[in-house]
Amino acid sequence: MRLNVALFFAVASYSTLQSIIIPILPSIADRFDAPTSQAAWVVSGFLMIGAVVTPIAGRLGDLLGHVKVLLVILCIFVVGALMAVLATSMLMLIAARMLQGVGAAAVSLSFSIIKGRYPPAQAAGAVGMISATMAVAAGTGLSLSGVISTYLGYGMIFGLPLLVSTCSIILLLPQVRSDRPVATNRRSVNWFGGLFFAVAMLFVLLAITQGNNWGWLAPATALLFLGGVGVGAVWVFFELRALNPLLDVRLLVSPSLIRINTTTLLAGMVMFSMYTLLPVFLQARTPDGLGLGLSVSTSGLLMLPIAIMNFTSGALAGRIAAAIGSRNMLVLGCVMNFLAIALLAILHDSPATIIAVCILHGIGVGLSFASMPALTMLAVSPQQAGVAAGIYNTLRTVGGAIGTQVGYAILAAGGRSPTGQTFTALVVFVGVVCAAAIVSALTIPRSPSQYAV
Q1: 115 three-class SS
Q2: Of 124, 240, 267, 307, which one has the greatest count of Cβ atoms within 10 A?
Q3: In 261-420, which ranges are E strands?
Q4: If 0-12 CB within 10 Å is exposed, 13-18 middle and 19+ buried, where does residue 94 land?
Q5: Is the distance from CB of 138 to CB of 18 less than 8 angstroms?
Q6: What rounded mean pLDDT belongs to the chain?
Q7: ∠ Cα 111 78 47 (to 5°)
Q8: Strand locations in 61-117, DSSP E?
Q9: Which residues cross the membrane (predicted)?
Q10: H runs (alpha helix) in 215-257
Q11: Nearest of 124, 150, 164, 147 to residue 17 by alpha carbon
């Protein structure tokens, strides 16, 4: 029971901080007098670090013990949360968020702990608890961040997860004595793979961040993009030859997975670019009448249907998949996301419309992210399931980082405050990515036997 609570607290802390910052990001940019493109790093830096650390932490857990590694991850997470509470500049907050990003490993480590310590009958229930915790905590953070920051203060945004994760550390300490490693080959930790992957992402995201300031065709911007591609090519070269690659590049681009992986990347971009668009649209009011000009707390509450419908559609996903198939459920989810952005493009002048948009988007996210892991598992052999799951989680996170950074880069094109043109451009961008996700999902075969390895 104590271990259940500890894992619940660990996952809840990370999942809350993943989303809680998004609705208040415009006010945080104002708080530190920072441009919107720089403020985007509060989210994308968090996601980028999570994408890199998760596979490395998983391997270290195999070598040293999953509980021990989870404790280290949570200690770093606590330092990041405390640093965010005390932040006096945007750069300090971004650094704090990057430290918090290591908390992404808490999810996969929790699954590994459950698998190693629980009998199969109990493990299924514990895994369900962790999955539900992720959805509920992320939804709660997204919806209540404005209320918390308005009535309890900015510091409590990070203070509450800090307290919860500290409780998780205390509850996990007695479990260290019985923690045992499951692997012995210490040379198999791919540190260089993680480094090259992080640098490649950093260069590309920096180019997107600075494109408006330097010019999209400026030499510095081009060098960053080319540097990201170059480092990425070096990463692929070494990954193909690594004994224990960070990501299995061959499996990543294999015929059985490439269409699912492409859809996963696009779905991550859709989700986080929508999370970028909605809070700014709700809180801003442009001279040409776009935006609702609502308070931070009200805008957060208007986004509550995303969390409710995400959880509800995820809970019903098993029945829906049994009726129409996981591939068709994925297509349906992508279509719902497209309908959400289309509705926002046509009708955007009342809170009721925004609620309808959030309902559609919540259903779309819930159905999409419930179907993609199932399709991924069907597309590979049992021996490849763990590696394929790691690829899925990484691509979803990378897509989120790219979607966030591109979204805020588009909004920043209009200066310190968004304009009608930048809102329109971001809506078009989200719509195009949604359409691409639909097309990609439609290319996935209907029958698992057509692409099972």
Answers
A1: helix
A2: 267
A3: none
A4: buried
A5: yes
A6: 87
A7: 60
A8: none
A9: 39-57, 69-88, 94-114, 126-148, 154-176, 188-208, 214-238, 258-282, 329-348, 354-379, 391-411, 423-444
A10: 219-239, 249-252
A11: 164
